[in-house]
Hints:
Largest sheet: 8 strands, mixed
CATH class: Mainly Beta
Distance between the termini: 33 Å
Low-confidence stretches: 1-23
CATH architecture: 6 Propeller
Number of helices: 3
Number of domains: 1
Radius of gyration: 21 Å
Helix content: under 10%
Strand content: 35-45%
Amino acid sequence: MKKTFITAIVMMATLVACESPSTKLELVTINVETDYPEKELILQDFVDVEYVPLETNDEFINKGWVKAVGKNLLAIVNGGTDGDIFLYDRTTGKGIRKINRKGQGGEEYTQITQIVLDEEQNEMFIVDYPRQKFMVYNLEGKFLRSFNFDENSYYSFVYPYDKAHLIVYKDCAHHGQPEKSCHAIISKQDGKTVREIILPYKELENIRYTGMHEKYGEITAVPAHYLTIPAKKEWYLASVSSDTISRLLPDGSEQPYMVRTPSIHSMDPEVFLFPKMMTERYDFLVSIKKKMEDNFSFPSTNLIYDKQEKSTYTYIIRNADFEGSNVALWESSLNPEIASYRTLYAHELVEANEEGKLKGRLKEIASTLDEEDNPVIMLMKQKVN
């Protein structure tokens, strides 16, 4: 079995869910203890690939970290600490404007945790996790309004749900009420919760790891993981306390979709299973063991479920446009259209092009690059039927 390691994220919260009735359906079953065979995939076989070369000039220099993708725009940051938001034209990669409203004032954000673009309404939602707040600006950077997270909760995994709402994960564990944590749909206008989406569980589990390190003493950390995955018109919802990954359908109904075995409640140390990217043919998943390694990582295994074959594998992904490349799914889905993305650095593309490893659109772009240019963004889009 090919294993990878998930880097620990310190100070994340315990993520749990609340109980609801389930429906009897034929569920996909994943055994987290099985050594599955490996399968090699070609990226272009299951997603459509779009390359966006980010314009480079004195004002637009960045690391190419994608925070949001709209129909016409990309929102790029340097990691969120400097407060800069770079808006690019998605088609051409041309820089449109740089926005920075970082500060301590009432119309400013302290951190860019997430960004949600609403181009139709000319709005941009900044999730400011430390302040438990949404800051809303127009696409020119003018402050419009703000609203708070629900009392005693922190919001994560924030996505556009429909024209009037966002979908979020409400984490109440910080305030000692983990049983109240759940997915929710909230108003874009004032943050009011209009629906809570509750997953079934038998007992609460805690993904937070606490243990002793030979050099640093007691360590507390949480592995990076995903609880909400959009895919076209459906949503896949998970919880650390549930054995089931559920599906939220376009009509608003919920269905259990996938079940893990053995039960999370029977394992010591626990092995969690989370969705990572869901496409028409393949479900990409990651299992994570609650055991920290000496390098502060958590043992993990990347899995796919092949819906056509009804079989499970570990996997390697190759990019047909980049000979010898191995596409790692570091990022989860950005919205229902964009299944994932990768940042391709200019110096690597220039070198690969000189070695004759590139083809098609990627080769065309690389032939125009300088090693010091901004990155090229590779968007992995859900295939259109």
